[in-house]
Amino acid sequence: MSIQKAMPTGRQEKTLIGFKKAQSLIVKITEMVKANEYCINIMQQNLAVIGLLKSAHQQLMENHLNTCFKKAMKTRNEKRIQEMIDEILKVTKLFNK
Fold this sequence. Notes:
Oligomer: single chain
Structural class: mainly alpha
Distance between the termini: 25 Å
Low-confidence stretches: none
Mean pLDDT: 91
CATH architecture: Up-down Bundle
Number of helices: 3
CATH topology: Methane Monooxygenase Hydroxylase, Chain G, domain 1
Radius of gyration: 18 Å
CATH class: Mainly Alpha
Number of domains: 1
Shape: elongated
Largest sheet: none
C-alpha cells in the first residue's frame, strides 16, 4: 500500500494545533497527578485531551476521505479500493473501542 501525503496546509496546521494542545495538557495532567491534585480536576483535563484527540482524528479522517480515498475511487482499481475500505473500517473499529 502506498502512503500518500495529501493534507492541505491549513488543515494540517489545524490538526497539528490540536495535537500540540493535547500534548501540552498531558504534561499538565502528569504534573497534576504528581502533585496529588483533586481527582475530578485531573479527570476534567483528561477529558479535554480526549476531546482534542477525537477532533484531530475526525480532521484526519475527513481529509483522508476527501483526498486519498477519492483518488482511489477514481482509479477503479478494485483491489486498491478494497484496501482503502478495509483501512477505514479498521481505523473506525479502533476509534470506537
